[in-house]
Each structure stands twice: as structure tokens, then as C-alpha cells.
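Inputs:
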Amino acid sequence: MIGDIAFGQFIPGKSPLHRMDPRVKIVLIFLFIVFLFVAQNFVALALPVLAALAAIFLSGVPLRQYLKSVKAVIFIVLFTSVLNLFYGGGQTLLKLGFMEIKSGGVSNAIFIAVRILTLILLSAVLTFTTSPNSLTDAIERLMKPLKVFHVKVHEIAMIMTIALRFVPTLLEETDKIMSAQKARGADLESGGLVQRAKALLPILIPLFVSSFRRAYDLAMAMECRCYHGGEGRTKMKVLHAGKGDAAACAVSCLLCAAVIVCNILLPGSLT
Amino acid sequence: MSEFISAQDVSFAYDPEEGQAPRNVLEGVSMRIRRGEFVALLGHNGCGKSTMAKLFNAMLLPTGGKVFVDGMDTVDEAVLYEIRRRVGLVLQNPDNQLVASVVEEDVAFGPENLGVPPEEIRRRVDEALKAVEMYDFRLNAPYKLSGGQKQRVAIAGIIAMQPDCIVLDEPTAMLDPRGRSEVLRTIHRLNREQGITIVLITHYMDEAVQADRVIVMDDGNVLTEGTPREVFSQVELLKKHQLDVPQATELTYRLRGMGFPMPCTLNEEECVEALAAYLPPVQAG
């Protein structure tokens, strides 16, 4: 069943992270991701990692959810770490034919693995604790300054909202069309890759046709409800940052400052 | 009752496809909708009733004649949004008219477009959801609701704009019997309790019977109009235009044809009463 695909991965809850202003969350997560890459030695790197672990703890989301999201990227992590093993200076630890693994390579590999894993975990914290709606809402407000450059911020956010709204509807429709085509003898499961791709055509075409019809209907319904773009529009839910958000900002800024201090005082671990 | 919408000698033609002559969907239609009234607009597919609905809220503009909403000409662009706010339109497919992925945010969409302040929107949304008995579902995702529930959310989305009139274009055509009765009960209550003018476009005769007034359209013209009893007593006229009458009306009509002097009945109860008059009284014991 197609509809079973988890979407948005939002896990409802009442944790302090769920209650945070989505704008603040996006900015802070982004800040930590940047500082993951600013960190030049293990002590500095440990700080954003600690922050990520604290966030995971505070989110109240079961750990297996995080493990699932890590599992999805484990191959990429291993691949990049193994590649990094062969770069870097220092003592030679192992000689494999013409390749040699040096101590610098090992620390590089660990460094990069930790960076990618933390990055994944941080973005998982964001999507697990923020509903798609507040995410779009926050993105709309955060991008508002871009209006100066004639970026159609409101339109982009509206497109995201509508896309999110119609994902389940279209999945359901795909399911229906697939059943209808199967009932007429369409074979979707056998044959090679090319054959299977070809078999998808009779599903995609009706799906497209109906999507256009839906889009037409929706546009009309929106106009009927006086939609005329972002001009003069208000919002029912006004985002406002509270004390918790201020505290989170303060702690984050301190951590980031500490990363810079560590970078300056301690020798770099990357070669 | 004062006049709310008035269509005067309206004709309308859609843009013709290439190489084809434009064909009038409406040809000189005049009709009035009075304030607070419940009107059913009946007719075949393609008789122009959906076009009429879109003319009422300035989604379409007449190619001939005039449409006035509370005295405002729908051609006047300055009052376009005022007209659309006052005359809400609910469409047939409940899936395609909900915008947001949370029920309460969808209901807020209309007032947000009108620039209503946030606290006021909150109040209106709660009120509108209570009015259609969907308040308990306010945090649900629309795709998890039944057809009747979705359609009631769509109605709430219109109510939140505080309209004077709601036009519903075959709102029950895609619903199961239970969804149909939910929607009908809701619009009848809104009409009765909040005095909202309702224009119900339908091809279900039993829905039309419950209206204050029925307007029957055929082939771009008004065929006949009046109270349900006046309209459905003209069985021959309706049949000539391949329109149905409610089943109860049909039964008493046929019995009349067979020589029983029966009154014109509109629903099951009246029909039963009329038939009972012909049956010998049940012997007690």
C-alpha cells in the first residue's frame, strides 16, 4: 500500500522542543550545522555533538526513530569515511600495496563520520518536532526579507502548503488508478526495469490528467474565498518566540562561541 | 423579504473552442433570490445551473444582461471581493476545495485572505466549525475525513467569511446517503438559525422538495418556478423536459391517472396519508 509511506516524519508531542518557535528552531539547527563544519578539532566538534544529543533527549521522540533515520544514510557515512582514511598525513599505520593509512587519515575519517551523523540527527530533530505546516509558516516568515529582491515568498510558501495538503490525496488516487489498471490486466510487477517503467505510463497519465483537473478546481475554490495573493493577508496563528526560545538561543550562542575559542586555543585535528 | 441577488436577462457563452461558433449556455435568464430564502435550482446536466452559480459570485461575468448582488453590479471590479465574501460558493468535489492540511487552518483561509485580525479569525473559525458540528475535528487532516465531513468543513470555510448567502453547486453529488443528509441538515440549520440565504443547486428532487422555492432550468432558460408544491404539481411539464419528480409525487400522479382523485404529494408522509384515506379503517381487535 503506497499510503503507508511515512511522510513529513512529524511525530506529534508536547516536549519543550515541540513547543519552540519553528523559526528559532530552524535558525538554531542551521547554526549548529554550520558550526559542525567550523569546528577544527575534536574538542570543538564535541560541542555541537553534545548540543545535538541534548536536543534528541529533550525532543522526547523514541530513539529508534533516530536510529531509523541514521540507518538510511549509513552507507554514505561509511563510504565517505573509508575514502577519507587514505587522505591525511602523520605516521603510517598500515600499508596496503600502494595505499597507506596514516594516523591523520583515521582522525579525518572519524571526524567526517561524526559530522555527517550529527547533521542527519539535527535535521531529524527539526522534522520530528515541527509539523509541516509550522515549518512552511516559519520558512515564509524567515524568507520575508528576500521580498526586497522580488522573491515571491508568499507564493513559494503557498505552493509548499498545497503540495503538503495534496500528497496524501494523490497517493490515494495513485493507489486507485493502480488497482483499476490491474483490474484491466496491467502487469506492474514482472519484467525488467525498462518494461516496468513502461508499465507505469498508464498510471502516470491518468494521474496527471486528474491532477490538472484538481488544480483547476482548487484554483477556483481559492478565488471563491477571495484569495488574491499575499497582499493584505493576515494569519490566524501568529508565531511568537517565548522565554524558552530565548534560553535556547543564549545556550546555542555560548556553545558556538566556545567552538571558536577551542579552534583558536587547541591545535587542529584535521590534516 | 428584500431582494438579494437579481439576474436580469442574463446570457452567457463560454469561450468557444477554435473553429466553433460560441454557443449560449444561458439565454436571457432572469431570476431573483430574496434575502433569507432557501432556493433550490434544479435542472439537467448542462442546463446552465452551474454557470448561474458562478455568475452569482462574479467568478464569471455575464456576456449579456446584468447580475446584481445586494445592489452591486458584479461587473464592477472595485466590489469584486466584497461580492465574493457575501456570496460564498461551495463546489461539488469536497477533495479539491480544501487548501490547508489541517481543518482549522483551512477554515481560516477565507478570513486570512480578507485581512481579518488574528484573534478575530480564531473566534470566527471556532464559531464556524461549531456551526457545522466539526469543532471536534479541528486539528484533523482533511484527507482522513469522510466526504460529508469534508463538505461541512468547506461550508465552515465559507461561513467564516460571514457571508449573506451560500451557493452550493451540487454539494451532495459525490457523497454517500449519510454524507448527503449531514450536509443537508447543516445547510437547513444555517438557513433557519443564522438567516443565511441558501441557493442549493441539485438534481436530487427530494432535496428540492425541502426548499422554500424551486427554480427549474432547462436548456439555458428558466422553465418554471414556485413553491415545491406548485412546481412538482406540473408533472406533465417536467416529464416533457425529461425531469423527474419525487417518487411520492410520481405515485400519486399515476394513481390519479388511473382515476383515483388524489392530491399532489411531495413526501412519503403526505403520500401515506393520501393512500390511507382510501383504505378501509382497521377493525379494532
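The CA atoms of residues 40 and 264 of chain A lie 9 Å apart. Flag for discussion at group meeting.
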